[in-house]
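Recap for those who missed Tuesday's class. We walked through two folding examples back to back. For each one, the amino acid string is listed first and its predicted structure tokens come directly after. Nothing is annotated here on purpose, so try labeling regions yourself before you check the end of the notes.
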Amino acid sequence: MHDHVPAPGPADFAPTAAHPLRVRARRMTAASRIAPHRHAWAQVAWSATGVLRVSAGSHTYIVPPSRAVWIPSGVEHVVTVVEDAELRTLYLWQAAGACGPAGLGGGRADDGGGWRQSRVLEVSPLLRELVEQLVQPPADAAREACLAALVQDELARARPVPLGVGLPADKRLRVLCEAVLDDPARHATLAGWAAECGASVRTIARLFRQELGTTFAEWRQQVLLAKALSMAARRRPMAHIAAELGYASASAFSAMVRRSVGVPPSRFFASA
């Protein structure tokens, strides 16, 4: 059950050409949920502490403090608080035709249009400190402009992280996927999830292939990796992470991580 939080009004914290970056800070409790909404400007969702789940477009992202989610203008999104969080929302004005952060000429020239899609970004220590400085905008307009320009430059340079879980359009499958996201260890097999939602294994397997172009096992594996990343960010021991995600041993969990991302857990989780 989620506590619903209304989306910000269109005039609240709206960026402009004169103030191209606005930062909103909110403390939110676990299970809070900001209702689906969209903006005429781009947004970055990040939590200084805690863990978020951000659904934007056709993907959902589980976001620890070492990561942020870029959301282009016009994309409907929902923010759910997985763990008590200090939410920092950056609203960015974009010039006509720009696809990346506004002051950056639409992002790096070699970006390949990736800014037109939601993406996960690595949060550098510098970006973290710059955002905190703008939570209470400086009285000095020149200083505010300098800080905002530095934030946008750090965003343009931030390393994209290939994390994200696809979400289906089919309502039956969407309900099942949302349930897995909330508690991926409740059932270990597709048969258990299919029985819970009252559908046959064959039907659910077919929908996964049609809607998401993958198998249930591969999709759930991405969910488990995202959950594990958020737990690693809270410094949970590897054995605890493995047990909570339903693995019989830390070695079995490590083997899954190696198969999925090609590196051992110690390296995959190091940046968390």
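Example two. Treat it independently of the first, because the proteins are unrelated.
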Amino acid sequence: MNVFAFDIETIPDVEGGRRLHGLEGLDDHDAAEALLAMRREENGTEFLRLPLHRVVVISVAARINGKFTVFSLGEGGDDEAEVIQRFFDGIERYVPRLVSWNGGGFDLPVLHYRSMLHGISAPRYWETGDQDREWRFNNYHGRFHDRHTDLMDVLAAYSPRAVAPLDQLATLCGLPGKLGMSGGAVRGEIEKGNFAAVRDYCEHDVLNTYLLWLRYELMRGAIDSDGYDEACMQVHETLEQAGKPHLDQFLEAWTG
């Protein structure tokens, strides 16, 4: 079974904001500030409606054909449509189980909206049984199907009142959690041209998510303790061999 534990990072879609709200004449920073101010006035939060989130990176901790890897789509200046299309092309090719933390509430809906905007094609992802009857009872969109496992949703027993932050649960389980950055800093780092910090942060999140998924698989009996230890060791060896500072940082925080 192939697995993609994935996460996205986003910034305000200032071009969309200009079209919706007549913000022509404002530079990107001021247009973003105007969008956030309007949202605060609307409901007291700066969290924009999902169609106005522009995807800057998609990171994946993946097990593909038995091998573990971590990678990101997007290099800071990449076209958003290309980044999203490459993600769905990966689903088309490998048909993985998707694993996320709040992917059902944020990441996937954002990708849906942005795919509509860009005309992205993703037939396998959208299959629900019309072309392949086997997918009627297990597809990426059924809340209780396992082609997409939203760990936050599942562990909260599908109760919004019971959800927990990824960082907190990861830390409680002895994983690194977030390392020196939060989602609220993404826009500022992108505006400063520091895409690498955003990519590294996103890859830390998918590593936490993947390792929590392994714990979940152990908990529900899909793997035994030996299988769990072996899968964790596979992650450990991959990070050790990668020779990348942010992965070394994660490994050090994980294993001490």
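Answers for example two:
The first strand starts at residue 3 and ends at 12.
The radius of gyration is 19 Å.
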